[in-house]
Amino acid sequence: MTEGVTIDLKEKPPDKDGREEKTYDGDPLTITGMTIIVTRSLYPPSPLQGSSQDFYKYEHKDSGEQQFTLKGIQDDTGVVINVKGLRSVPEFPKDNVLSVSAYYWKHENGGSRKPKNVLIVEVVKKGHPNNETKYYVRSSVTINLTKDAYVEGKRYCCYNHIGKGKVTVIPGLVSCSQQHNSTHITYFKHSINNGYSLAGIEYNDDGNRSQRKKIKIPDIVLPTRQSVKVYVLYCTGNNPKLIYVDCGVRHAATGWYKNDRWQKTLNSVPDPEKIANCSHNEFNTLVSELKRNGGCGKVGDHPGSPQPPAKPTIPVPPISIEALSLEVASKYWAILLASRVPGATPITILASHPSASTLIKAFSELSGLSTQAITGISIASVGGIGLGALTVWKGPALIARLIARL
Questions:
Q1: Strand, coil or helix: what is 31?
Q2: Biased composition, Basic and acidic residues: where in the chain (predicted)?
Q3: pTM of this structure
Q4: 114 & 25 share domain
């Protein structure tokens, strides 16, 4: 009796002979003759207007359209995909499986060779009585360094997904203060959360989602489960100008990279969080590199110059602090106070959050808001659902308002 079928994701149809199918033995340790057929198709099958079919779907199923027992799934390197321990990720079903599909970025190798970095695995099993149940696992993630790619409607993870999503994006400031003047450079830190591997680093050229550019770091072999953090600095436009890749102190890939070719630079400058004010001339070295290779003009002019210090503009999107600690809340508040964002920048704390009262008190203390600044009670609904929250607004003046649940 068969012990189950092992799906091998590296089994793919040939690239150049026009064939879209291939077969292989799904149960090589027995003589059951379980033949798996792999079919490649473009995804999405019917793209919406303005979009394109930028992915490949490889579907693995029994050649006789029979259900099977799933023993395991091997990735393109031959390693069995193990989802145990991944947060909020269900284990693959074992029995009554109809198919296993793997999704890939079509342009991974310029479209000329088979892709190897699986993005999503889909398992379809027979339900009761005649329906099908689909299970999706995405154990890898691509870091997108496009400026503001994570704001409302485009986010792949940001403030309101802290501790929940695959990637966390946190803004910060590199500053230099001398002679009662100060200047700042804004950076954004992209961190992959535990349990997920890095599939790649990319950005949308000039913000165009159909024009993706890959950033290849020579000493990083992808995909990797190694801890990787990426700091990114911008100037004009949406493209990154300088990035700092942190793979650990002794890793060859750790360091600053510049230009579209992403060559190493600034060997003596640490990551943005470790640049200590104006010490060791690190801040000025960073500024010079931004001006020389990033075309950033007067960004970060030395505070000792007769010109008035540059005032930072931080594009701080709405922040939902449903699962935010007091320590992190304090950090975000400091960033908000330093920003000069037109209009209002809201921080929303759900009233149902167990620490809501503590956070409300903390924000009042951090911002110096008086009781008169906390104004009225109003009623709001989002999509017909009552929303209870405290919203702190940073605009021409600091105002807080309490929204009551319907």
A1: coil
A2: 8-25
A3: 0.49
A4: yes
